Amino acid sequence: MDVVVTETAEDAALAAARHLAAAAGRGGHVALAGGSTPRRAYELAASLEPDWSRVSTWFGDERCVPADDERSNQRLVRESLVEHLERPPFLRAVQTELPPKDAASSYSQALEGIVLDLAFLGLGADGHTASLFPGAPSLDEDETRAVAVRAGLPPWVDRVTMTIPLLCDARAIVFLAVGTDKADAARRAFGEPPSRATPASLVRSTRGRTIVILDREAAAGLRA
Question: What band does 168 get if pLDDT is binned at 50, 70 and 90?
C-alpha cells in the first residue's frame, strides 16, 4: 500500500485526478466513487484527459434514487465529469428504478467476468467505503459482485454496492480522503490491522497497487 500525503485538499484531488486520467487514457473498466469528496477530482480529471471513450465506468455504489436526484452518484459523475468531456465513457449505471435487490442482482450479473482496471474509492468518517458499512452482513458476501444494503447513515436510502471480492480483484485501487473529519477513519483504515469495524481496511488490491491519497489534515493520525 502506497500512502501519498499532500499539503491541501486541492492537491489531493489533483493527485487522484491524475490516476483517473491515466486510467481513461489506457481504457478498460473503472469504478467511480460517490459522495462529496470526489467531485473536484472528477472536474480535474476531465481537464487532464477529455477523451474517456475507451472506458466503461461503473459505480462502486449507488443510492436507490432517480438518476436526476441530488443524492444520486450517477448525477454527481454526470455533472462533474461526463458533461465536461469531449468524448464520454460508456456509463454502466445501476438500474435504480428497480427494487434494490433486483437492481443489485442486475448489476452483479452485468459485472460477471469484469476485472476492474481501477477502483476509485472514498472513505467515510465511520470507516466505510463504497456502501460497505461497519459490521454489516455485506462484508461477508463472496458469491455475488453487487448487493443491496440498508442505509448505514444519512441520506437514509437503500443502496447497491460492489462487494469486497470484486473490489479487491481490481488491478489498482485508489482511495481519496481529505479533511480533519476523516483523520480517525484514515488512521484506522490505513494505519491499523484490518477490521470489520473499518470496512475500508478490508479493501486492498490483490492484483496490483493500492494507493491512498490524503491531505495533511486527513493524514494527521497516521504514524510518520
Answer: very high
In-domain check, residue 76: yes
Q: Residue 161 maps to which CATH number?
A: 3.40.50.1360
Q: Could you tell me which residues are beta bridge partners of residue 161?
A: 61, 147
- 42 vs 78: CA distance, rounded Å: 10
Confidence of residue 152 (pLDDT cuts 50, 70, 90): low
- Quick check: 60 and 142 in contact, CB under 8 A? no
At 188, list the grid cell.
Answer: 484506522
Q: Which long-range contacts (CB under 8 A, 24 or more apart) does 195-198 make?
A: 196/134, 196/135, 196/139, 197/127, 197/134, 197/135, 198/127, 198/134
pLDDT digits (tens, 9 = 90+) for 90-124: 999 999 999 999 999 999 999 999 999 999 999 99
* Grid cell locating 74: 450517477
Residue 129 lies in a domain: yes
Q: b/e map of 158-183 (b: 16 or more CB within 10 Å)? A: bbbbbbbebbbbbbbbbbbbbbeebb
Task: Report the predicted TM-score, pTM, of the whole model to 2 decimal places.
Answer: 0.96
Give me the number of domains the chain comprises: 1
Domain that holds residue 116: 2-215
Cell 480517525 identifies what position?
184
Kindly report the backbone phi and psi dihedral angles of residue 157, in degrees, each rounded to the nearest multiple of 5, phi listed first.
-130, 155
Q: Which residue has the cell 474517456?
A: 52
Asked whether residue 220 is assigned to any structural domain, the reply reads: no
Q: In terms of Cα–Cα distance, which of 79, 60, 61, 82 is closest to 70?
A: 79
